[in-house]
Amino acid sequence: MRIFAAALTLILTVSPALAQTDDDVFAALEGVYGIEEAGNFDAYFTALTAAFAEDDRETVAAMGGYPFEVAANGELYDILAPEDLIANFDALLLPETIEAIAGQDYADLIVTDEGVGFANGALWLANVCADEACASSDWLITRITN
């Protein structure tokens, strides 16, 4: 009986994630980050996906939470500043990764307490505090994995 209950719980927990809607994603963002940060996320989502779609490397780089890591070519690279990402963009990001991020559906985002995943986890944004008091924060890229 316990095994059946555990299996049922697992099925009910996993199933909604497979068919989530935009509203489900927003509710998850709100539940983890609060209403204000969830509301702020939409602008970052739009800016990030548009920047990838338009090959706007400067905007993508401006959204980085430096330093952060990029996994590419079987290596792990530390990106220390925006100019590092811009100068090495083609070597660090596969065309498939760029296309997947540019075409990201809001309903297919991964929301966790550690951040929001794009393109099945190829890129992660996290809500990063601007100072110790965390009076303000921004959604920033914290990792890219090709």
Key attributes of the depicted protein:
146 residues; alpha+beta; globular; DUF4440 domain-containing protein
Q: Which structural category do the helix and sheet elements fall into?
A: alpha+beta
Distance between the amino and carboxyl termini? 42 Å
- In which order are the strands of the major sheet placed? 2-1-6-5-4-3
Number of strand segments? 6
The biggest sheet amounts to: 6 strands, mixed
- Radius of gyration, rounded? 17 Å
Kindly describe this structure.
With 146 residues, the protein is of the alpha+beta class. It has one domain. Helix content is 49%, strand content 25%. It is built from seven helices and six strands, in the order ααααββαααββββ. The protein has a six-stranded mixed β-sheet with strand order 2-1-6-5-4-3. The longest helix is centred in the N-terminal third of the chain and has 19 residues, at 35-53. The protein is globular. The N and C termini lie far apart (42 Å). The model is unreliable at 1-17 (pLDDT under 50). This is DUF4440 domain-containing protein. Residues 1-19 form the signal peptide. Keywords: Signal.
